[in-house]
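Suppose a classmate hands you a notebook page containing two proteins, each written out with its sequence and a corresponding row of structure tokens. How would you begin to make sense of it? This section walks through that situation. The first entry is reproduced here exactly as it would appear on such a page.
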Amino acid sequence: MTNRSRGAGSLRERRPGVWELRVALGPDLVSGRSLVRSVTVHGDRDDAHAALARWAARAEVVRAGRRAAPGVTVADLLDRWVVAPHGWRPATSVGYRSTVRALRADPIGTRRASQVTPPVLRAVVARWAIAGVSRASAAARVRCLRSALGWAYREGVLDVPPLRGMRGPSTGPTRLHAPVDAIRRILRVAAADVAQLRHHSDTRGAAGAELHRREQVHLLARLAADTGARRGELAALQLGDLDGNVLTISRATSNEVVGPTKSGRIRRLTLGDTTAALWRASVAAWTQQALPDRQDDLDDNEHGTFGPWLFSRRLDHTTRLSTGCAGHWFADLAARARHPDVTLHRLRHTVATVLVGQGDILQAQHRLGHHDAATTLRIYSHALPLTDAQAAQTLDSLFR
């Protein structure tokens, strides 16, 4: 542990190349307890000290603004809010920081935060639409402002929450699912890719690496179409997550950091026989290719010689495939199947649409990992089966 001057924070090396920084943000205005921000930094000691200096400077800004300041501008308020402790997932933090940069560069950044009322914000949203800002980006900016202003009220920076009760703009059209026929064609192309390479007698070197990639893409597409799992959940799967036909999804990546799932819950799904068999056959083939002298021992990953990740760029699967790479691999497959508009995430929407269309709302909620069925209904209500045929006949007979 390395301590610095009061208020400058502390530094500890948790393991070689990984440092933990702790910076005090001052007392909470409600509970009175001291708030501390903990940050993980990768690099050498100089990198860690430089990061600690930056976070200490940000903490000073937060400490200076913890008293009511009705004259604070939106830009200053956003600076304080984005560095305060929130418990965000890494991807959420990155997304908010990007949105904060856009808002600081916008004219609204110079306004007093207390003056950002619903009529003012609606006028700003209209100006964004004229300037060509997409509805999704506008909705993200409004969410960011609402969160920051709500935080400022709770922290005593503002006397009143100026946007209380205001709803943000729609994020855009209904989420489109991929047609079932398109997914079938993509899966056929994936299987044909694997079969074509397996016909070659020599699958060592570059040919072996390409076969390994195509086998993974095939399994990735099958799992996405079967489970409806998020891309980050698929990229974080490990060999031991399948027991028989039951898949346990207990982790996910957020900005390429492995952690809990988006909902924080562990869920268990039953895979179809075809998908489960493909998983087992693929793992057996990969183990044989990576460990040709010990092909009968599939538990070598316990000794660090194979695994533990299901998807990897390496033949020994000792490193995880990034979510970005998984998306690129699938996009390449979809393009060769002549469906370049089908993304890996759209397969998730297809799973939901099919299940909701059959009336299996609770099954769709569980398979997709939503907190509750209300979320599933809100997003996929357009897929609900029509049950008003009798009402139509009644009205038709009445006015015939």
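The notebook's second entry, a different protein, reads as follows.
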Amino acid sequence: MDRRQRRHSGGTVVAVGLMVGLGVGCATGCAGSGAAAEDARDAGDPVAVLHRAADLLREAGTSKASTSMEMATGGTRVTIRGKGVYDYRRQLGRLTVQLPQDPAGTAEHRPITELLAPGALFMKNRGAGVPADKWVRVETATLSDGNLVTGGATDPYAAAELLRGTRTASFVGRTEVGGAAVRHFRGTADLGAAARTASAGNREALEAAAKGFATARVPFDVYLDDQGRIRKLRQHFSFVNGQQKTAVAVASTTLLYDFGASADVRLPRSKDIYAGRIAENQPEN
């Protein structure tokens, strides 16, 4: 793998812009501020609503997920995309993560299969000298970003639990995501606060991220459907580059859809997990 995939992970980072254009000046006859105020009242207290978002995903059970992670590195914007399923009650997910083409234009890397579990990340087709039929296991609490960035995809449930640390939030307006009517909220979460109220499976990883990121503040945009379930979540992380010790802006976007979809995620057997040394900076094509 290339340099974007160091630190025992599938790469680094992502995404998609979330811009919602809201209405603008009319001379007469607009619903305007009255309708907006009514929508805001219907949306409820934004901070309280977002603190409950992860719990409502657990109630939903399962969904399909698409992820995107983007950052600028060496003057080039790098995007990593993933797609799969997630079981929120078991906190287990499976994503197929596609790394971008090398700047030199060589063939794309083979997709990496990632299994997400409480406290652990499993990767297949990791490259770096790992046999093709073996999995690499990484303890997420040992990563300075808690695997919010390292794996090239943010664990959907960890992303939702980060909203438990919402400090400030406002209701932006109503729109649609994937054909579903949603409420758009914008705010800032605190990693330390999220870690203190997170589930046992994510607590240590979020604590590591609170210490390892350049700042514990995470600006976000989130879109909730009428059941309060997250449909789209975009979060901005400030990640410290291990080589240059400089902060890198990383944007992670998660899309959730097809709630109730089958999500049979099975973790690797011990004999299928690679126990050898992982080479650094060795690409997998």
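A careful reader of the second entry would note: Helices lie at 32-43, 46-51, 53-60, 156-162, 191-197, 200-212.
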